[in-house]
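We modelled the chain as a single entity of 415 amino acids. Its sequence is:
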Amino acid sequence: MTTSAADKSTIPGLAVMTVALCWLVALCEGMDLQAAGVVAAKLAPAFKLGPGPMGWFFSASTAGLLIGAVIGGRLADHFGRKRVLIGSVVVFGLLTAATAMATTFPVLLTTRFLTGLGLGGALPNLIALVAEGTDPRRKNLAVAIMYSGMPLGGALVSLVTLTPVLGSTWTSVFYVAGISPLVVVPLLILFLPESRQFLEVRETKAPQANFISALFHQGRAAPTLFLWASFFCTLLVLYLLLNWLPTLLVSRGLTKPEAARVQLFFNLVGAFAAMAAGWAIDTRFRLLGIVVTFLTLGAGLLLLITVPTSPGSALLIGSLLGAAALASQSILYAVAPDCYPTEVRGRGVGAAVSAGRFGSIAGPIVAAQLLVGGRSPADVLQAMLPLVAIGFACTLLLGWARSRQLRWDSKDLPG
């Protein structure tokens, strides 16, 4: 008996292959996304940039990512997850390497913006491929494992800056972050299976819903809005920390290597916390995991504001913040696919990622404007606390709704 193309991705080995390859792409995404933050101390004097222009530099790629996520999600529902993912990886790999060749600030901003288009196109397809290509009982854990590649990529790029040769210039970091995804592309072409669910939906040849219907009809309006608000608030906090945490720590007395070490632990601890959060979302501890994650994020910000800065305290608090901030993203990436059926999942997840990128754009710019206006780093961090509360409330509502749905579904099972 032969196995159809639509059934192949149900084979456990191919499910593992899907998660592994998507994890590699997420690792490359993490390297690129955090490259800007880890090279900021070297890049700013090279281009003679103050806090204001640096805020725009940090936000350029996320502006492109915002647009790329919407386009990538829409194309994925039409052409398939695999094709759009491969094209997106090629784009952000080439443009990341091109960033290292920039000689003027406008060119630097342009290459970062175009890089963001590729990053945005890749992300909703990574989520959809893993969510649709793995066992539904372990789907959220699989998405969390894939997402853990992003903070690990950030940790890897932090390590690059600490090496004597590659860490000596800001350009070498972008070359490493640009070449790495291009190496992964042949593996995706040869071994990545297309989503079984997408293939089945395409075979039905059902008419595609328009953008508004996909996101807001058939009871999807409330989940969509809660998801957008959660992504916006949590990504604003996360990207402020990713881009400005080393600079804030240096301003409070740490050396640049010490600040880079904190950023490294922020990502390493966060990667494991992201996987733990994904496991919790697959169990009866779903709501408890959400509560612990967001309370820890708020507590970490308060500790960073109030505790005197030393290498030891900064390392501990940075690890705590990394665990909470990245676990919150893991939770959202896990619940986002559940909000939409297969035929509109690419658009739904892409729109949610795009909404979150408004926050990731705003975070670095808000921090830059507050610092330019004379506010202290403590003031910047304190301004994030209300956003943590909003993200907490919206994510908890999504988690509660999903738990309620699972209870109803279990009642419908025979026996």
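As a brief sanity check on the tokenised model: The two ends are 32 Å apart (CA to CA). Residues 221-251 form the longest helix (31 residues).
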